[in-house]
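User: My instructor asked us to take a sequence, write out its structure as tokens, and then describe one feature of it. I'm not sure where to start. Here is the sequence I was given:
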Amino acid sequence: MSNLSDIQIRTWIKNNERFEARSDSDGLYLRFRQVDTVPVWRFRYRFAGKQRVMVIGNYGQMSLAEARKVTKELKARVALGNDVAAEKQDRKADAVAKMEAKNNAFTVGQLADDYFNSRVLGKWKHPNIVRARIENDIKPNIGKLAIEDVKPSHIDLMLKAIIKRGAPTMANDVLRWTRRLFDHAIKRNLLQYNPASAFDLSDAGGKETARSRALTRADLVALFEAMRNTKGFTQVNIITVRLLLMLAVRKNELIAARKSEFDLSAGLWHLPAERNKTESAITIPLPRQAIEALETLHRLSETSDWLLPARKAQDRMLPHIHENTLNVALAKVKPNMPDVEAFCIHDFRRTARTHLAALGIPSHIAERCLNHKIKGVEGIYNRHDYLDERREALKLWANLLESCETGQNWNVTPIRKQA
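Assistant: Let's start with the prediction itself. The structure tokens for your sequence are:
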């Protein structure tokens, strides 16, 4: 029988002519059975006295000329003592095994969850701080990688990304927890080495020093003006910054607040213990300006249960805005404040504490305004929460902020400390 031709093959396909085998040369033949959607190239050879057959491709994806070239190469390998069909099966089995291993791989995200549940939850005073670093930084960067696939380069990229967004202290925290995660994997015989072990604080955020930044009145005036003039900095962002300054609360306490926590008619915010770093509930008095701001947020959030509902789809599917949302927004504002020293959102609490002192607020009341526990023996025996005193203190502070925002020439007379 003469060799095959492309014209013949195309005619058979056009006429839907089915067959078991039409030979070409060197063991190459074409099969087009009823069950075949396209003709199939097959290679027949003998190895160790037994006939062997293997599929080498489909007609259409592999032309006649290409099939002959492949057949010639396979025949040469058989002549050298290779069972090419068995080799193909082995390659397929290896590929399937690798795919299964990949699908069943223990990921960094799973390792982080295991570490958190077994080593942190129920043992650390503030487990949510660890959870935040896992969910906000570790998982988004390396969480989907199999633990054995993580290289030092992945750790380096993760740390650089955190530093780039202006959070060096957080980069240090992430490095510490990443080291602990992989040490945990070594203890569980899941890994032989820690990919984060070569890094120290100089590779992350560097040596940490206590922050002392507090915004002056001039800084506050510049901040409010820059927020108003920054394109894309929304009304909700301005109100959120205003509330963070005015109430001196932690960022996560505000962004994760439910509307049900607020009694605006009584001017009170009941912050529950489970959302409080001190793990004790506190009632926060609301000055007039805060009530007005919260009423606006209640209206803008419409039917949501959350004061600051999520603005778009997120990987973590949070019902409220992400903790980095305000950081990203403020990064657009800061270029419009070229003469103001760098600051971060956490500096707002120090700013409030500094100005409360300047307004003559007694130290123990100012500390309670920041929801700090009273230290020493007094803190043990004095359970009075100074609600009325805190209300007056935050009123003075809110008035000062209002003057900074509106440009009013408002001078407050500091409270005279009793002799």
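For the description part of your assignment, you could build on this observation: The first helix runs from residue 6 to 14. Try explaining in your own words what that tells you about the chain.
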